[in-house]
Amino acid sequence: MPSNRRSLPPLNALRAFEAAARLGSFKDAATELGVTHGAISRHVRLLEDWLGPPALFRRLNRLVVLTPTGRALLAEAGPMLDRLAAAVEQHRSGGDSPPPAVLHVNALATFSLRWLLPRLAQFRDRHPGIEVRLSTSTESVDALSDPYDVIIRGGPDTYYGFTCHFFLSESRLPICSPDLLERQPLADLSDLRSHTLIHASSLPRVWPDWLRAAGMPELRTASSLTLDHFYLTIQAALAGLGVAMGPTALVADDLATGRLIAPFPDMTLPTRGYHAYLPDARADDRSALCFCRWLEEMGAADAPGADGPKERLSP
């Protein structure tokens, strides 16, 4: 008669593995769990012996790197430990409602700050049973070391083991503060010559591409200000330091409230839209799919309508 007994590894060994795999370091895992480096090493070895080959880590000089087998186990162990911790917390609190499902989301920093976070309360209100844990990075989808349920990047791109869901279109156009326009009007493209153009060093071609598409590739301005991140260029525009090139989706709220003005609203430069990438292992996950549907709904609400930009410049 077949046994219904579960075959489970030692919990402490699994915790040690998950921490070391997530942090990429036995030393950091030891600090997080309050044990010694040697204890982490012993627990990981115990787990590897319990599972049998292949190994979970490749051990280099002062570095440990997950093997494909280790990455696969981490993808399951992390969410499982999150659910177990939530269940324990729910028990301690004495509540009767089920613990929330934890959804790990990774997105670009500027997108998170200027589009996702201002809307996230709507998702929480609508889906109180899903807890979103958001982290940010600029790494490509297939270069992330930690497992995520949803990854938000530009696209569309093709990555092995992931499905891609479009949810938000994007283009770029000049933006500035209303105070700046009061001091220095921008009635015509040639008026840009008397202004400061704000550049992002991470995207050096944005202004040149827009000017070329607008028919003024040789335009020279009074001065320029270069910052190392797109988010900083938007903040500089809000502060009245010059004219920045704004991503329409990420400055839509500022344009709607008048904090920013688009002096040439009919001239936008098309660029890559935003997509949600789901690992194949999460393709049927209810929380991940629910989040993607919500992203699509929010993106559709922000899509340019009859009063949106009319002309899209060819780069």
UniProtKB/TrEMBL annotation:
Domain HTH lysR-type: 9-67
Swiss-Prot/TrEMBL keywords: DNA-binding, Transcription, Transcription regulation
Alphabetized CDD domains for the sequence: PBP2_GcdR_TrpI_HvrB_AmpR_like (cd08432)
Record GO terms (molecular function): DNA-binding transcription factor activity; sequence-specific DNA binding
Keyword Coiled coil annotated: no
Gene3D superfamilies linked: Periplasmic binding protein-like II (3.40.190.10), Winged helix-like DNA-binding domain superfamily/Winged helix DNA-binding domain (1.10.10.10)
Biological process, per Gene Ontology: DNA-templated transcription
Family: Belongs to the LysR transcriptional regulatory family.
PANTHER family: HTH-TYPE TRANSCRIPTIONAL REGULATOR, HTH-TYPE TRANSCRIPTIONAL REGULATOR TRPI
Official protein name in the record: Transcriptional regulator, LysR family
Protein source organism: Arboricoccus pini
